[in-house]
Amino acid sequence: MSASSSDATLIRVTEPVATAAPPSADPRLRELRRVAIVPALNEEQSIARVIDELRAFDPGLDVVVIDDGSVDRTSQVARAKGARVLRLPFNLGIGGAVQTGFRFAFEHDYDLAVRVDGDGQHDPAQLARVLEPVLRGDADIAVGSRFADGDAGGYRSSRSRRIGIRLLAWVVSRIVGQRVTDTTSGFQALNREGIALFARDYPHDYPEVEAMVMVFRHRLRLAEVQVEMRERGGGRSSITALRSVYYMVKVLLAIFVGLFRRNVVPQEGSE
Ligand SMILES: Nc1nc2c(ncn2[C@@H]2O[C@H](COP(=O)(O)OP(=O)(O)OP(=O)(O)O)[C@@H](O)[C@H]2O)c(=O)[nH]1
Ligand SMILES: [Mg+2]
Question: Angle formed by the axes of helices 207-217 and 159-176, to 10°?
Answer without folding.
Answer: 10
